[in-house]
DNA sequence: AATGAATGAGTATTCATTCAT
DNA sequence: GATGAATGAATACTCATTCAT
């Protein structure tokens, strides 16, 4: 469809240049569609960008959701979720770039969209942690602010994804494991030689 | 001094609108100085932005560095470092915004400056972790990729800082403690009811 | 065509104010076209100016070339060439102004273009003189530096053209005759009462 | 004196960059004087330029005037005058550049100044020619428009001077002789092998 | 339905010129 | 008398956006 064609091009171009430096001209060229078409189908630049973000966010969420196996124990769920996330980042690099880097630049105009994605991700994590906690009979974790911990985890995962873009010689499984050792085991256990491993 | 006056204004405006949308006109107005003065003292827009980033990065590093008490055990060092970081974010909100959000937008032109800051931060954390690890006679941590873990921690801290901007009713100490419970104890210990607390 | 429309306006404005003082705004206004069109069709100010010069130079050369009747004796050829030149100056006053006065001002950036024109003119004259000389079996003239004489003649013709702009009550034929009496006969013959006249 | 110091610098800078591109900053720097001084002594940029032209024009006229030996026959007077002119051009290259090239660029603002110089030069030449003519009992020359011929001669001399700047391996005497052969003898005589030589 | 052609509005940057000292 | 510091005003250039076809 025309709409999809244009969105694909837009994501590519926004990813390459960022919101401001991306030109409608280049987008129309890459899409192989005239500029008036873009305006007719997707509205002004701002709308277009918003729609890019929304679509890519949905894609990513879906990918992660599919990765999580809810029949497994919480730690394994988290691990699989992280792997799915990293696979997505690897496969849809442009999507990731747009979501993570470019979406922040537009004066908070799109913070909403991105925050929505982030909240969703955070919700997923929170659920996991809380579940794990309650299973063990400890609601304590929530008091340490489940949301805040989830936010931190998401930030860590994102940051590591960025790092990965420049150190791509590591598998998604290893990457996820590293992160598990940080957030599941903590430095303290690591120091003690106590590591986490997928079972 | 004039230079400082201008840089302050520039940080404020860049923080508000981002690099591209910020206009030299607004900066000059906020600074209470005519535009030619800006060019004379700090050069073109790009230079100006670079100088903003460099100054704020230096400030932040200094603040964190001063917060860390190297005579304390590693976990306490980390905790104090985090607190210093959050105090800085709270006090110099604009600095933080510019460093974290806006610096990424300029086509990687300034990635260098920001990455430098980030590397410095990561180095500090790495040093702590490695120190802690070796004290216990365990080089293991390195195999989990010290750098990657440090990257993750920094990401987590940044992400939490962002979250904090919208949930400012928490003290920096609490915030740092939350993060310590994530990275030092890990979910596993938390679930077990094993929490980290400043001593 | 749009391109022609713009070039016409540009020549007019450059002729009036010179390269530096001419503003793209005025050109666009005179052309009855918006500024972006100028940039789109003809590029930046410098390109625009270069294109003006090139077009006018070509025009002028063509005009002169068409004026020369190569079947006539050398002196008549020269006379006809000069007439054609003055007719061109009279008809395209702006072209002449741009070529002669304004093209020199841009820091030698366009000296090339103009010098090319001048060389062409000089070549034509040189050819004539040398032809005349060799017909009479005398290569001597070249030894008096054909090029230098040609340069001088061109300079004389240009200077006279400028003078003419303020004393337009003289026909191109008369003007050309005056010049012939200078360069063909010389003061000496004139003093002797020996004048040149078209046959 | 301060005034002279500034004028010297101005001529140098105007000669290098032309009127528009020359900056008051550079002039003040070259003069070793602060900008307000320039304004105080010589007025605004336009005034300054006018004064440069006036001074250099006077210098040049004086130089030529001193070169002419009025006790000699007209052709020798002319030849000596031309030599003096070329010696001046060689020695005060900047003066010549400013007078000939740069003065034309300013939208006719300074045409007056330069034309004044030119008229003076033309007057000198006219006088010579007329004198020569009348001595021979022939008022004819005037009918060929003494002024126009003078204008042409001056143009030829200027043009040749410009050419000389790029072919400096010729003495001023030779240069003047070439020109004499053009304007005194004419192509016709040259073709006949009849050349002019200083006696 | 689709586009080539056109533009309004905005921004960085530069300099001649002048105060305050 | 002399200047460092400051600015008003001007200009090239770009790009999102829309008609006329």
UniProtKB/TrEMBL annotation, chains A, B, C, D:
Q: Which residue ranges does the Swiss-Prot or TrEMBL entry mark as DNA-binding?
A: 23-42
Show the InterPro entries listed in the entry: DesT_TetR_C, Homeodomain-like_sf, HTH-type_TetR-like_transc_reg, HTH_TetR
Q: Which UniProt keywords apply?
A: DNA-binding, Transcription, Transcription regulation
User: Which Gene3D superfamilies does the annotation name?
Assistant: Tetracycline Repressor, domain 2 (1.10.357.10)
GO MF, one annotated term: DNA-binding transcription factor activity
Q: Which SUPFAM superfamilies match?
A: Homeodomain-like
Q: Which domain of life is it from?
A: Bacteria
Q: This protein is called what?
A: TetR family transcriptional regulator
> To which species is this protein native?
Amycolatopsis bartoniae
Instruction: Provide the organism lineage as a comma list.
Output: Bacteria, Bacillati, Actinomycetota, Actinomycetes, Pseudonocardiales
């Amino acid at each position: 469809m025309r709409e999809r064609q244009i969105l694909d091009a837009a994501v590519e171009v926004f990813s390459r240049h960022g919101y401001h430096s991306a030109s409608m001209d280049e987008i129309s060229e890459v899409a192989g569609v005239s500029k008036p078409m873009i305006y007719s189908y997707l509205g002004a630049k701002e709308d277009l960008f918003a729609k890019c973000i929304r679509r890519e966010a949905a894609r990513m969420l879906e990918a992660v959701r599919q990765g999580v196996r809810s029949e497994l124990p919480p730690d394994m769920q988290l691990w699989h979720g992280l792997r799915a996330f990293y696979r997505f980042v690897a496969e849809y690099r442009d999507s990731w770039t747009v979501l993570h880097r470019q979406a922040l630049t537009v004066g908070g105009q799109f913070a909403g969209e991105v925050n929505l994605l982030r909240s969703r991700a955070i919700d997923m994590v929170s659920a996991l942690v809380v579940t794990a906690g309650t299973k063990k009979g400890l609601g304590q974790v929530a008091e340490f602010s489940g949301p805040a911990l989830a936010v931190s985890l998401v930030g860590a995962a994102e940051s590591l994804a960025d790092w990965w873009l420049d150190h791509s010689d590591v598998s998604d499984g290893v990457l996820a494991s590293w992160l598990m050792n940080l957030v599941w085991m903590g430095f303290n256990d690591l120091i003690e030689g106590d590591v986490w491993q997928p079972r």
